[in-house]
Amino acid sequence: MSLFRVLKSRGFLALLAIAMFASALLGQERPPSRFDIFTGYSWLHPGYDTYVPNAQENIDKGYTVSGTYFFNRNFGMGIDYGNARGCCCPQIYTLTAGPTVRFPAGRVTPFLHGLAGLHRMDLPSPFGNDTNWGVIAGGGVDVRIANHVSLRLVQADYEYAQHSYNYGLLQPNVSGVRLSTGLVWQFGEVGAPPVFPAVATCSVQPTAVFAGEPVTATAIGSGFNPKRTIVYNWSGTGVTVSGSSASTQIDTAGLAPGSYQVMANLNDGSRGGVASCNARFVVRQPNPPIISCSPDPASVPMGGTSTISSIASSSDGRSLTYNYTASAGSITGNTSTATLDSTGAQPGTITVTCNVADDRNPPLTASASAMVNVQAPPQPPDLAPLAKKLALHSIYFATAKPTREHPDDGLLPSQEKTLVTLASDFQTYLQSKPDARLTLEGHTDPRASVEYNQALSERRVERTKRFLVAQGVPEAAIRTKAYGKEQNLSDAQIRDAVERNPELSTEARERLLDNMKTIILASNRRVDVTLSDAGQMSQESVREYPFNAADSLSLLDTHETGKPVNPTAKKKVPTKTHK
Hints:
Blueprint: H1 3-8, H2 10-26, E1 35-45, E2 62-70, E3 75-85, E4 91-102, E5 108-122, E6 129-146, E7 149-162, E8 173-187, E9 199-205, E10 208-209, E11 215-222, E12 231-237, E13 247-250, E14 258-267, E15 274-283, E16 290-296, E17 299-301, E18 305-313, E19 320-326, E20 330-332, E21 337-341, E22 348-358, E23 365-375, H3 383-389, E24 395-396, H4 413-432, E25 437-442, H5 450-470, E26 478-482, H6 491-500, H7 506-513, H8 516-523, E27 526-533, E28 536-540, H9 552-556
Helix pairs in contact: 3-4, 4-5
């Protein structure tokens, strides 16, 4: 069988594929073995230089067994036994020994060897056999596929020997190629494990702190001898670092703001088992908190309280605490709000100081101020001018107003204006004299029956009362009285009032005196107002008829706009009812 056919054979290709697959999955890096035993198939091309009777060109039935002892990682001595048995002729046996040099590289180990020893070749009768010296030299490649097993992908050797038969009549020489493959059984270990560069990585946590906050530095090593203990030696630039373990804590108390470096040296005591690393951290510039505060309300009466609200923040994200002081009174609270009690403080300004502190040791602080005005109690007003300001005027109504059907009629614009002013002044008066009262007294002119005029006077005081209440006068501060046509002003009183009215010119006064009958009737269609207060003399309204008002003619008119029923006439209705 030719070399090409051997390489192409299915069994050889399958064995090669399995070996490569197993190498990828199972192979692992280990120290080189101390002792190797190889067993495998061999193929021999003898390469005879002379005629050998019935000789095969290639001997494809053979095996090889060898053993090698390694003194160190690369050099060893081995012994090799080979057997090549053809189907015809010849049969060759070898027993050789010699040095082996290998080059371990992870799972793959190339090697070279040179062997010398006995070489025997058997020929058919009448030649027999001959044993002589021979040499074998070559090399191959082993691939580790398990912890103690490698696949010898190929071993290619040059084989040489000289033979002589029948006293030199036949002297064939072997000068050929031997190819082998099989399994290598490996035992023991030699030398240190593969040396890879030792590497160290340093880190710090956190990477930015304020002075006084701890920093943890950690070093992680790789590529060190796992059978040795790593010793850690820490140092720092601008900072004191100590410790002999993988992690150490750095005290940053008293450090100025800036960048600092820590270094670690790792050493396992072996050659190459040394590595260093470094890491940096930053000490940040501390920022104090900021605060503002404000009072609500900003002005309080003596003995009153105000809520003080603070708005504070820390750009460094620190926790904050609050406290407050006041120049007068007392203040309580230790959160973002506090309460100022002005009890005991004199009228004037109280200065409140709002303080905030962060959680450092010592803390950084900030302050802000707020002003609270303490008001003096109001002085009792001088009631005489106030009572004088409360000018009371009688309210005048048109004839027969208001009616039962329309109880809200009857107040003309000029009279409403008078009531608006009166209501405003009386409410001011009530602030000092809360017990003050207004009494409304209703009157009618003497026309019509007593019953009709009584009801009309009641409607007039009720209409006046509702208007005052609508202007904000408390209803409880108003009393009403209705006199009908009783207690009317006399003719002399009305004439005197006309003569003393300061709003009338001489000409107007004379004209009115010539029409006193109409004036007397209009002067009694009114509601008088009386101011009464405990401890004060009652003040009655001034009965000044509004001759100059724009609507005075409506007040003077003695004719009805409707046709009221005269309650005193049962069988006869007068053509015109006067009130």
